[in-house]
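3.2 Worked example (two chains)
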Amino acid sequence: MERRTFIIGAIAGGIGLLEYTIVSRWMKGMRLRTRISTSPPKAVPRG
């Protein structure tokens, strides 16, 4: 395998891993937020 091809593959793999980490943390945060807010949202008075 050429060195350049290996480097491009390594960079693409690193970007994919980073993307997976960010998305999985975001999804975990979304799940936690829905569990916490069990009561309906309160109306904010405007005036």
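3.2.1 Second chain
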Amino acid sequence: MKCKGSRLVPLTVLALILTSVAPLAFASTLTVNLNTKAKIAVVTSVSTTKIVLAYPAGSSMSGYLKEYNSSIALKGSFKGGSDGVNQLQTHFDDEDNRASIQNMTVAFNYSAKGNATALVVNKETDITAWVSGVFNVTNGKVTADLGWRSFSVPGEMNLNLEEHHVDVNLVGSAMTESLGARVSVLGILTGMFGGAYVWQRPTINFSSLNSPLSTWTRNYNSLTNTTTFSKTVSGQSTFTASVSNNGQRYSISAVSDPSAAISTQGYAVASGNSLTIQSTPILLSPVVWASVAVGIGVLGGIAYALIRSRRSTRQKSFTLPASPA
């Protein structure tokens, strides 16, 4: 069956409707592990985006995509100073130019599956980066500056992964990749949504995590001597763009809940965008509690020995001499 753009969606009658002006939703997690000994931060971002293209059952679009299925999984490694690292470094610099990416790994995958009324594309970009320049030591006090944690990549992030040149960021690029085998349909979708906000929106976006670290949830584990700061953006953020064609509605949307966790060895407190590693308060120190436990054990042992000794003495004091033969 040939695809006729004029039959499916006459561009002259397209009415682009933005049903929400909230930022593009993205299901993302950002994890930062601070290694105070090596003075390195290991940053892992997982950006998962669920994109739903909805169309009327029985439409030409439904006929083209109702049994469509495609997927891909790619990965690559990049050294500091390479083009791949520089693309991310630029956006770290926007927040804090002291943080420097030494190297990074990237994994990109998507799966696309169509049915009679929708095409669902699940796209994920995982980045692990080793970052230096995070720590400052002044008068023996160690401070970690984390202003860069709210980084975002606003445009394309083109990487060479297993000899595939692919943009791992924009929503429109994810649709382009997933529909590569349906060139005619892709052309129609670009005509529908190519100028829409959602099509150009990034999926690597942690700008909503820019609130002061002192407002994040803090937890100190005295057993492991680890402090963790965590934040989840409340509620879901949704963006939908739709077009109307002869009373039929076509739409594209995405939804997510971003969250983050920052952990460091030691007892840390937050101020603004920084964490300061301090001496563990004596009442929280695992060493102190271990010493207390040992002391209690020793005292318990001494008390038990004294009780046994007293009982033995009493038994001897009341022992009657044997009767004469």
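3.3 Remarks
The chain has two domains: 5-278, 285-317.
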